[in-house]
Amino acid sequence: MILTLNVGSSSIKYTFFDEALKVLEEDDVPLGDDAVDEVLRKVPKPKIVGHRVVHGGSEFDQPTRITDSIIKKIEMLIPFSPVHLPKELAVIKKLHKKGFLQIACFDTAFHHSMPILHQHFPLPVFLWSEGVKRYGFHGLSYEYILQHLGEEAEGKKIVIAHLGSGASMAAVLNQQPFDTTMGFTPAGGIMMSSRSGDIDPGVISYLMREKGYGVSQIDELINFQSGLLGISEKSSDMKELLELSPHDEKAQMAVSLFCYSARKAIGSFAAALGGLDLLVFTGGIGEKSEAIRSKICEGLEFLDIKNKIRVIPTNEDLMIARHVKAFIEAGEV
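RESULT FIELD:
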């Protein structure tokens, strides 16, 4: 039996699989001191637990068995992902103390094989050696989509748009990661529900110098007060904003800016890839909102876009379970 855990900002999503990776139970529990115990009360004792871990830094390029030394290494990455890693580590540590076998599946691992050129920021090179580079995220989702496409992805120039509360895109060439919108943190790239995506770095220094913003205020602004929420001043929920937009200018602006940001990314990746064979939409917004897909694709007719669109529901939990099962079958646990 395999238990997968996906720790969010306010809840833990758990999925319980049998050996054939059939889902036996899945649900969410509120994140809190007793969240792990609550999950364990809801399911039979698992043989092994798989985790989605947002940031794996430069070292972790594949799923890894949790040990004391691995926990310490992940702890050293907290400065890279202070919003996500502390909560994920708290769950991992609790289960580690209880003696559970655990596998960490890193959301950054998929992008490790991007061309080195595409991993660089145009910053002084000494920062590269300190880990300041483009890591990319949503890797488990992209990995799942490519496995789903199978032979259809062979030799293709593909853009995968994972559009949810967190949103990013990946360019894939010959089934290998080529580029991605998110960079050093999950706050970068295209506009999101409450995250800004890429902005002029001068805005940050201006806010700190002229408005007295501290680091924590900047983090709060970029991660929780911007994006759809910041522009609309009403909601970070795309469905709600679509309902409001016919009679609310700010809601309309938020939706339009999101779609424009996404459209630019697709066009940029098509140029970088030297063409486009397939555009895959996934994630909550990408899968469920035909209106957003259509609005994003307006103006991309020169790519013959209407004949290249696929909508594929992602399944990060199944991807984690597949990695865990591979460990079991290889006799590594």
